[in-house]
Specification:
globular, 11 helices, 3-stranded antiparallel sheet, alpha/beta, 8-stranded parallel beta barrel
Length: 316
């Protein structure tokens, strides 16, 4: 009887879905910040780090790639047994941040390269202006996909995952946007995601998703389309903010994460600096680590949380 009970317990344990495990702890930071956060990186609960690389830093000139910063990061992380996730950034959140290769900004074939967008940097923070790459321009998108292919040729299987930036983009439709439409924006996002999945066959591919232009409550079926695509093609999903129960997210990506728990190969979400500005309506104070982790695990099915080193629980 004892052997039977133990066998049943073992069967139950191994039949639990993968998302039932507590989220793994990673850090999130700009690519040039790794050295100054060495102490927190070495903490035993930290399994790795997501580093954000601008497009320009990886392709300083057309077709000329510089991956030295990624090589250096791996050289620092691998001896520590830490994993690396790279994010290739094609959008920026301050007026002076225009970090695309110069040829994309000056050659008319690329539609100006960047288009202005509005950024909302956190609860109670003033609205700011940033930029997003004109991925709906086929020539520009081809260059982005060439960069993804070059990264895969060097790092597929060496990095844990590559993440593509968030879907949110607040673009003024009244300005000249060189062919922008909401449908074209979504199609371009999915095309880039498919290209990343083709290029990276051993590392995970993750698309950050939070909001879509022109959509609220999946009224254009952009959100449902992305989640179905991800589940069918072995693509992970994630997002830049874990804010428990926030109404805007509950009207967009969050319910889909809940619905797709256990159906995606990886769910990786972040607690970035703006995320720390949000307050728990129950307490009037910032969300605690425990509240964030519990919500991420139970409702969103998160496998990895990327924490900013500014999170209070990580401070010395």
């Amino acid at each position: 009887m004892t052997r039977l009970i133990l066998s049943l317990l073992a069967l139950l344990l191994f039949s639990l879905p993968a998302w039932a495990a507590a989220p793994r702890t990673f850090l999130y930071m700009p690519a040039d910040a790794l050295e100054r956060h060495d102490a927190v990186l070495r903490r035993p609960e930290v399994e790795g780090v997501q580093l954000v690389y601008s497009w320009k830093s990886l392709e300083p000139a057309r077709g000329q790639y510089d991956f030295g910063a990624i090589d250096a990061a791996l050289a620092r992380l691998e001896p520590l047994g830490k994993k690396l996730v790279i994010q290739v950034q094609d959008r920026f959140f301050t007026p002076k941040a225009r970090h695309l290769p110069d040829y994309l900004l000056t050659d008319p074939a690329y539609g100006g390269g960047l288009v202005a967008q509005v950024d909302r940097p956190g609860q109670g923070k003033p609205v700011a202006q940033g930029w997003v790459a004109a991925q709906w321009n086929p020539a520009l998108r081809a260059r982005y996909q060439a960069l993804l292919a070059a990264l895969a040729a060097r790092f597929d299987g060496r990095v844990l995952a590559i993440t593509l930036p968030e879907t949110a983009a607040d673009i003024d439709p009244r300005q000249p946007n060189a062919g922008f439409s909401c449908d074209a924006y979504v199609d371009a996002t999915l095309d880039n995601l498919a290209a990343a999945r083709r290029a990276f066959t051993r590392s995970q591919v993750v698309q950050y998703v939070n909001f879509w232009p022109c959509e609220w409550g999946d009224d254009h079926h952009y959100m449902s389309r992305l989640f179905a695509f991800a589940a069918a093609n072995g693509v992970g999903l994630g997002g830049p903010d874990i804010v428990p129960g926030r109404k805007a997210q509950m009207a967009n990506a969050y319910p889909f994460f809940n619905r797709y728990k256990g159906r995606l190969p990886l769910v990786a979400m972040a607690v970035q600096e703006p995320t720390l500005t949000y307050t728990d309506p129950k307490t009037g104070k910032p969300f605690t680590k425990d509240a964030v982790v519990e919500y991420a695990e139970r409702y969103l099915g998160v496998d990895i949380i990327f924490w900013t080193p500014a999170a209070p629980w990580l401070r010395p």
